[in-house]
Task: inverse folding
């Protein structure tokens, strides 16, 4: 009898493992879709009381010849505001905005798109559990719900709706612990193409600088006066160069933390003499905490309580 | 010469073209005019267009009739008509009154007053109480392409003494500017994250392990 029970539990365990595996398989499929497909997509981004629309073009060009040279092209065009036109050719991302010089960076993906679609699955598996939900109809297509639930309570969860036919992400909701939607990313128009979209042809051969923005070669800034005493679960400190701040608002110290998917920024500035304040911009929390003669500002996709603890740990 | 003359005249009476010089000569030469008349007559006869009796004197007779006609003088009747209209309709009365200078001034005054009322009401409506301005979503925070309006959550968004409201508002604005700047700095950090990581890897490969930069632990 106990042997039978053991067998049964083993069976159940393996079943549940297979189910979660299925979730990750779907996720993998969706990550491949945004990397491999040729498409012309329009999506909206809803955060608090703001709505932005972007057109997103992507394509992979296979050069004719004996060597299989692939060029990945991507462009992000704001539709309802005169914002930054962003485009990518392989691992170079260009930011072009009126009045500014072209910013050239090295990136495998455009950071303004949902990071969850581009970060390595191994990183994400460390932080999230994938569970398949029900199928619904979205934009006239059958969409499969995939819940990525955070292991840690301070981290926000993701609900993804993936196109049943192609696996392409149709909607990404960022939700808090109470399953309240903080931010929504939603495809409103999707056109998959057999080959590189015509609009990207120009980008393929465009003469663009390949030399990225020169990072200062000096030592990372000395932060002897202030120290961060605690890191949220799963986060690591990223060593970084001097914070690029344009105006005369001095930054006494700053840190950048990452869990491989999200980033948290911490800044120390002379105090402005205001009480502690917290704001939310979509899924991004902004916390300002005054301490004697300094203000600690924490910006990142995290719970206010966690942000508070992080700010408290600055010494 | 003569036949040449007749040729073009004949052609002209058959609706052919006529040059300016030929027209001039026709107008000046009575002989030619007589000829023209004859040609027209011949044409009419051929086309069978003649009336029962041809009165060649018609134009002269008509001129004589005009001579004998009495001359008439036109009487201006405008005043009479206006008076009639004024008597029949109220609108007409107002219309005539509207032409008077005093009512014009009054109307202008009334329009100016109503504009002023609208302006005052508009200003009153657009003014918010200072408390409301503090607690309502602050519209300044924007980082693009990501970004938007930050809305306060929990903590201390209330308890602002109204006496210091203006000062507080100023500070809030300053705070918003600072936050906006930090958001932009953060955006830059994220954009350069991969590049920084790559460079550090390179540095670590080239540099011996001795020079470990101090970690902020």
Result:
């Amino acid at each position: 009898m106990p042997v039978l029970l053991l067998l049964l539990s083993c069976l159940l365990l393996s079943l549940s493992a297979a189910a979660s595996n299925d979730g990750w398989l779907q996720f993998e499929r969706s990550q491949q879709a945004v990397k491999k497909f040729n498409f012309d997509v329009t999506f909206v981004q809803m955060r608090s009381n703001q709505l932005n629309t972007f057109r997103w073009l992507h394509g992979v060009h296979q050069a004719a010849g004996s060597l299989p040279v692939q060029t990945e092209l991507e462009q992000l065009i704001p539709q309802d505001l005169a914002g930054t036109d962003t485009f990518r050719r392989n691992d170079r991302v260009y930011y072009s905005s009126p009045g500014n010089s072209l910013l050239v960076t090295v990136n495998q993906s455009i950071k303004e798109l949902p990071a969850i679609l581009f970060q390595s699955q191994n990183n994400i598996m460390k932080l999230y559990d994938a569970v398949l939900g029900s199928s619904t109809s979205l934009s006239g297509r059958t969409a499969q719900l995939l819940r990525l639930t955070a292991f840690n309570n301070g981290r926000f969860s993701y609900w993804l709706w993936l196109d049943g036919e192609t696996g392409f992400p149709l909607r990404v909701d960022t939700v808090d612990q109470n399953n309240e939607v903080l931010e929504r990313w939603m495809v409103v128009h999707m056109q998959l193409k057999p080959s590189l979209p015509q609009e990207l042809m120009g980008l393929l051969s465009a003469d663009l600088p390949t030399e990225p923005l020169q990072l200062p070669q000096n030592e990372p800034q000395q932060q002897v006066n202030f120290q961060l005493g605690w890191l949220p679960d799963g986060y690591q400190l990223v060593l970084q160069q001097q914070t690029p701040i344009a105006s005369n608002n001095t930054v006494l110290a700053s840190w950048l933390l990452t869990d491989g998917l999200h980033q948290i920024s911490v800044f120390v500035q002379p105090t402005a003499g205001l009480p502690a304040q917290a704001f939310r911009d979509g899924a991004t929390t902004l916390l300002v905490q005054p301490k004697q003669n300094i203000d600690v500002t924490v910006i990142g996709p995290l719970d206010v309580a966690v942000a508070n603890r992080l700010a408290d740990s600055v010494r | 010469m003569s036949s040449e003359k007749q040729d073009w005249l004949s052609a002209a009476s058959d609706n052919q073209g006529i040059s300016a010089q030929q027209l001039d000569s026709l107008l000046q030469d009575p002989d030619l005019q007589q000829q023209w008349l004859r040609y027209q007559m011949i044409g009419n006869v051929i086309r069978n267009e003649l009336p029962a009796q041809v009165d060649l004197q018609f134009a002269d007779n008509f001129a004589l009739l005009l001579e004998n006609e009495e001359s008439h003088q036109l009487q201006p009747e405008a005043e009479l008509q206006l008076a009639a209209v004024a008597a029949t309709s109220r609108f007409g009365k107002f219309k005539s009154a509207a032409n008077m200078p005093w009512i014009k001034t009054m109307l202008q005054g009334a329009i100016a007053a109503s504009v002023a009322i609208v302006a005052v009401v508009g200003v009153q409506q657009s003014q918010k109480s200072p408390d409301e301005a503090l607690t309502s979503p602050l519209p300044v925070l924007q980082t693009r392409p990501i970004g938007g309006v930050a809305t306060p959550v929990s903590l201390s968004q209330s308890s602002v003494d109204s006496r210091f409201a203006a000062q507080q508002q100023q500070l809030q604005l300053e705070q918003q500017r600072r936050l906006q700047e930090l958001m932009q700095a953060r955006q830059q950090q994220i954009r350069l994250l991969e590049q920084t990581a790559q460079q550090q890897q390179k540095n670590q490969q080239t540099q011996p392990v001795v020079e470990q930069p101090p970690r902020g632990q």
Summary: Chain A has four helices and 17 strands. The first helix of chain A runs from residue 2 to 36. Chain A touches chain B through 72 residues (CB under 8 Å). Chain A has a mean pLDDT of 85.
